[in-house]
Amino acid sequence: MKAPADDGDQPSRFLTELGVEPRDVTGRPRRPLAVAALVAELRATTVDPAASDALREAAAHRLARLAALTDDEGQPLVPAAHPYRWWGLEEPTRSAVPLRDRDQALSLSPSALDQLANTCTLQWFLGREVKADAPATAAQGFGNVVHVLADEVASGRTPADLDVLMERLDSVWNGLAFDAPWKSEQEKDQARAALERFLHWHVLDRGGRTPTASEHDFDVTLEAGEYAVRIRGSMDRVEEDAEGRAYVVDFKTGKGAPTKDEVAAHPQLAVYQLAVREGAVDEVFDGRRPEPGGAELVQLRQPAPKKEGGDAFPKVQAQEPLAGEWVSDLLATAAKKVLDERFTPTTGTHCSHCAFRASCSAQPEGRQVVE
Q1: Which candidate, 235, 292, 239, 295, places its Cα nearest to that of 263?
Q2: What pLDDT score does 21 carry?
Q3: How far apart are the C-alpha atoms of 141 and 147, rounded to whole Å?
Q4: CA 192 to chain centre
Q5: How far, in whole angstroms, is CA 120 from its chain's centroid?
Q6: Which end of the chain has the lower number of beta carbons within 10 A, N or C?
Q7: What is the pLDDT of residues 151-210, one digit of tens each?
């Protein structure tokens, strides 16, 4: 034990006050000289089959003494020494109350379907049901602001003018928390580019499609095999094509984009189309039930290919009108996983940005200490 103020070359004065003769010992101690390390060693000794019965009993007695120590308010000083804090001693428990009532339609959002069916059910459970997601990030704030401004333009509340949109953006931008001023400036430039792409897309002739609704809320119940699934959400934009069909547009502000094959089977777009088929947009089509005419992702952060306008326009990824029953099968798969409460981890590229790695048994940092 040495004093930092003595530059580490003299023993601490406290040793002399304790009546201990300093002795220089070269090397590191076999464990850190801290309470947590002591408790860990004693706990390991109590279950070590190679230790003698006397040693294991002595370790247990010392743990009991540590566990009994309390402060002036009766709070334990070494709570980790008490067996009730030891992970793995009890059998796994199961809630007597089911997560969802099987007699009621299962409520899901369109964006949750991809997580449940194709990504990771554990991630869905911890984020959506446990509500353990991290607080909203600046990137999410970026997306929210751009979506609101796009809605204002589509509804006519704000003119389709970049200078006006940037004034609106400036009024709220400082409310977004960025790690550094340079990051804020960088993201603001990205927001300007995204809004500019949106405006170019907004005035573009999109095959005769005309807007009918913006940020359209819907609530429909779909039959998926033996399950009833209630889908509630909001469509960024609904348009009517030249044939009178409903076309759904979903604006994206993320830095990644799905592949062409992934867009063809994109669960969120497909559920939007299925919802259209079940009456989700009847009210904006004057009570008429339109056929779904397709859907698309508009990637506002990403430029279109050069043959489609280049950097001035957003990348557009279209999904053809639905064919077959694959969406209903996907909904049934998702519903079964939720109702059976099968929330097992599935590894993939999504793991790199998952907020629950420390709670995931598929990751080294998330495995149980008793494994």
Answers
A1: 295
A2: 80
A3: 10
A4: 26
A5: 11
A6: C
A7: 999 999 999 999 999 999 999 998 888 888 999 999 999 999 999 999 999 999 888 999
Which of these, 11, 36, 13, lies nearest to 25 by C-alpha position?
11
Instruction: Quote the pLDDT of residue 136.
Output: 65
pLDDT score, position 78: 95
Q: Report whether 314 contacts 254 (CB < 8 A).
A: no
**Is-contact 312 197, C-beta < 8 A?**
yes
Dist. CA 191–CA 197, nearest whole Å: 10
Residues 110, 270 contacting (CB under 8 angstroms): no
- Residue 322 in this model has a pLDDT that exceeds 50: yes
Give every CB contact of residue 311 below 8 A, 6+ residues apart in sequence: 193, 303, 304
Phi first, then psi: what are they for 35, rounded to 5°? -60, -40
Range of the domain at 77: 17-84
Does residue 121 lie within any of the structural domains?
no
354 within some domain:
no
Other residues' Cβ atoms within 10 Å of the Cβ of residue 283: 13
Q: Residue 153: which of 237, 35, 67 has the closest Cα?
A: 237
Tokens of 301: 């952060």
Distance separating alpha carbons of residues 56 and 43, to the nearest angstrom:
9
If DSSP states are collapsed to H, E and C, what string results for the chain?
CECHHHCCCCECHHHHHCCCCCCCCCCCCCCCCCHHHHHHHHHHHHCCCCCCHHHHHHHHHHHHHHHHCECCCCCECCHHHCHHHCCCCCCCCCCCCCCCCCCCCEEECHHHHHHHHHHCHHHHHHHHHCCCCCCCCHHHHHHHHHHHHHHHHHHCCCCCCHHHHHHHHHHHHCCCCCCCHHHHHHHHHHHHHHHHHHHHHHCCCCCCCEEEEEEEEEEEEEEECCEEEEEEEEEEEEEECCCCCEEEEEEECCCCCCCHHHHHCCHHHHHHHHHHHCCCCHHHHCCCCCCEEEEEEEEEEEECCHHHCHHHCEEEEEECCCCCCHHHHHHHHHHHHHHCCCCCCCCCHHHHHCCCHHHCCCCHHHCCCCC
Domains held by the chain: number: 2
CA 75 to chain centre: 36
Does 294 reside within a domain?
yes
